[in-house]
Amino acid sequence: MEKRYLLTVVAIFSFLIYSCGGASNQGDASNSPAAKVSGDAIYKKTCISCHQPNGEGLTNVYPPLAKSDFLNDKEKAIGQVIKGYTGELTVNGKKYNSSMPAQQLTDDEIASVLTYVYGNFGNSGGAVTADEVKAIRAKL
């Protein structure tokens, strides 16, 4: 019971941080196609509270992005950023049971942040394009 309570508190806290982190598109020039934001900046604004500055996540709560076998399936990774996820997930052989809210990011922003993640934290994936994100978004 105590573990479930902790997970609930962490999920609510993460949601509040995310909500305050600028999910609104009103009056924000960075949401225009002309304003490109780096993957590093998006990671720091959107992902860092759960996945941490080093991409290692939070032990037993949020899975790592660092050297993550989950990233081997690019379509699944893109889909999770778009739709979010709740439930059990296995990353690098370890089970996690928490949630990730759908991210309110454009196709360009998702491509940028995932390209950043694939190129950092000990990962060796290639670039993600906005066209790939758009195609996957259309399937969901």
Task: Supply database-style keywords.
46% helix, mainly alpha, two-stranded antiparallel sheet, 2 strands, 140 residues, single chain
Give a topology summary.
Blueprint lengths: L1 H19 L18 H13 L22 H10 L1 E7 L2 E7 L6 H12 L11 H10 L1
Antiparallel strand pairs: 1-2
Helix pairs in contact: 2-4, 3-5, 4-5
Describe this structure in words.
The chain has 140 residues and is mainly α. The protein has one domain (2-21, 38-139): Cytochrome Bc1 Complex, Chain D, domain 2 (Orthogonal Bundle), CATH 1.10.760. Helices cover 46% and strands 10% of the residues. It contains five helices and two strands; from the N terminus they run αααββαα. The protein has helices at residues 2-20, 39-51, 74-83, 107-118, 130-139; strands at 85-91, 94-100. Strands 1-2 form a two-stranded antiparallel ribbon. α4 (107-118) packs across α5 (130-139). The protein is globular, with a radius of gyration of 15 Å. The chain starts with a helix and ends with a helix. Residues 4-35 have low confidence and may be disordered.
